[in-house]
Amino acid sequence: MKMDVSFADMVRHYRTQLKWTMDILSEKSKVNKGTISKIENRDVKRPEYKTIKSLATALQIPYAEYIKAYIPLERNSEVILNILQEAITISDSSFLISDIATKYLELPHLDSYDAIEQLYFLANEVKDTSIQISLYKTIANYSRSHGVVFFLARSLLQMYYIERNDFTRLRETYQSGRYILNYTDIFNNRERLGFHYGLAVHAYTLRLYNDSVKLCELIINDNNSEGTGEKVHALCMFRCSNYYLGNYSVAEKCLIQSDKYTSPYTKDNDMLLRALLNAKKGNAELAHSQFEECLEKCAKSFIVFVVNEFLSFCLFQKDILKAENLIKTYEQKIDDLERNNPLRRTEYAFFRKLVLIFHG
Question: Span 302-310, mean pLDDT?
Fold first, then answer.
């Protein structure tokens, strides 16, 4: 097979632009003049990658341009893998990643499973999330078309974990997570538990409480969740989700049973839930004192959750003085809190909305 016309023309074009003779290019690139002549005349079989790179570097051909021309011609798996690792380190070559990875996977002499595994482990080590997404997507597409469910499931899972960090696409990425539920039997116990928990939090953040309840039940009923933080927090989300669905008796029953599973976060949450349940029962004075106690004792990061519920309660009760005092006391503190996850951002947005309602 002869060298691709586009690369041969590329070398001649850049050399001519620089007004270099083959002798000059040979001197600059340290590539034999005869080899250069054969490349330009398309008389040489695939030259080694180091030859191509030397010529391209001397001629200042953009990396992406010469790699795109070369990759379709290379058949050596080690060379392609090395090029892929090289491309990963070059900031302006991210769009090439999928092409190079696909070429590697499609080499006829490689075992498909081994090739996919090699790429998957490589993707796990990459720091740039956009490149990770490109690699995982390539692996998922190839795995799907070749029936390699093990790596299809894991690539989809890794993409979900990355993409859900884009807080502007929470609903879209939640649907991606829901799709992965079809593959959970492929995961080991730890992977499955972590995924169910992450998706339950995702649903709760989006206030999809019916989904949150069902996902929390998967965690609570998982024998492998006993004694884990995931189970403790799932029980907490289960109680709160039922409360927001209007299933107050279920929420209260779970709250009574909650002493077995506690953590600093769930203690704060349980205090708040007791106040909310008493408010629903019409025990306004008791609820008021419980809201106050919760504000006094809760963690700094939990203040916005308590203030939102307490402020909503005060506005419903038409207790304008207390509502005003809450805003004056806590507005700056809430503004200063880190909003580094979707749930906190949602609660902060709700707080600003309540402030607008109060002043409106």
Answer: 96
Average pLDDT, whole number, for the chain? Answer: 92
Instruction: Report how many helices (DSSP H) and strands (DSSP E) the chain contains, helices first.
Output: 20, 0
- Cα 45 to Cα 52: distance, rounded to the nearest angstrom: 12
**CB atoms < 10 A from the CB of 198, how many?**
17
Euclidean distance between CA atoms 355 and 325, whole angstroms? 12
Q: Count CB-CB contacts under 10 A for residue 222.
A: 18
By residue count, the chain amounts to 360
Q: What contacts 24+ positions apart, CB below 8 Å, involve 222-225? A: 222/189, 222/192, 222/193, 222/196, 224/189, 224/190, 224/192, 224/193, 225/193
Chain centroid to CA 284: 43
pLDDT (tens digit, 9 = 90+) per residue, 16-69?
Answer: 999 999 999 999 999 999 999 998 888 877 788 999 999 999 999 999 888 988
Contact 189, 206 (CB under 8 A): no
Q: Measured between alpha carbons, how far is 127 from 351 in angstroms, rounded to an integer? A: 35
